[in-house]
Amino acid sequence: MKFCRFNDDRLGLVEGDLVYDVTAATAVLPDLRWPLPRGDVFFAHLDLMKTEMQRLRPDAACLALTDVCLLSPVANPGKIIGAPVNYLLHQDEANKDAELNFGLPVKTIDDLGLFLKAGSALVGAGEGVVIAHEDRRTDHEIELAMIIGQGGRDIPQADALDHIAGYCIGLDMTIRGTEDRSLRKSLDSFALLGPWFVSADEIADPDNLDLELRVNNAVRQKSNTNALIYGIARLVSYASRHYTLDVGDVILTGTPEGVGPVQAGDRLVCAIEGIGEMTVMIRGKS
Ligand code: MN
Question: 156 with 267, same domain?
Fold first, then answer.
């Protein structure tokens, strides 16, 4: 199943080029009061939501996907977890490029662990990315994003895939520099999820998906998740040995080689096999 959040927090089932407005399904979600439970309430009730969305689908209003503004399919993740260097060829390019490494050896998860991105950085494909500091190099990083469906801690690698609700395309936008990753990668709009959510049952093998990113029609990044250093299950297991994972948490799996700068006016097309394709505009500060 593919679904999206669009316009003013509408909920849509995605089928081909169409979106069916099933916003009324959210009426069955619990009325929450302070203090809120941890985790994204929509994904905490995902099975119920899937049933309700399907029930409403026959009578739902239908729109063209090209006519809606796509928001992040996950509204309230407790954590957005990033994997710093998780493709060997990206590690190689970073070690060769002084604009990426600033004179320091580029290490992997074994040395660096993981990092967190701010919730305030989260946007969807229709909102685009804002370049806040035009004097700094700002790079695209396409990444497979996984959404936790069942939380836990110390999750064995053998069980890890059962904890994943589904997948999105992620953009881990990054200012290059020496500051901590949690600063450089957490500017507003620097955590982009889209174009929609694809449930895990539609992705037979998340460790074998082609991914590609084009800037103004030129291919910049092209790889496959089979080149990940920490594969999907290992990454979930590793993260859960440090953070308790909550339902709705997002894990960005790291970017392959080909990272490069973007500027206001650029048009990104990002595609991951089994998920789809999204267009993302790069905007200046307004
Ligand atoms: Mn990244």
Answer: yes
Please give the tally of structural domains in the chain.
2
> 172: CA distance to ligand 1 center in Å?
5
Residue 112 Cα to ligand 1 midpoint, Å, equals 13
Pair 211, 153: CB distance under 8 Å:
no
What is the pTM for the complete model shown? 0.97
Q: Provide the domain limits for residue 165.
A: 80-284
Q: Each residue of 84-140: pLDDT tens digit?
A: 999 999 999 999 999 999 998 888 899 999 999 999 999 999 999 999 999 999 999
CA of 240 to the centre of ligand 1 (A): 19
Residue 270 Cα to ligand 1 middle (Å): 14
Task: Output the average pLDDT for the chain.
Answer: 97
Give the end of a domain, one of 45, 69, 93: 69
Which segments of the chain does DSSP mark as H helices, in order? 41-44, 46-56, 88-96, 98-101, 109-112, 181-184, 232-240
74 domain-assigned = no
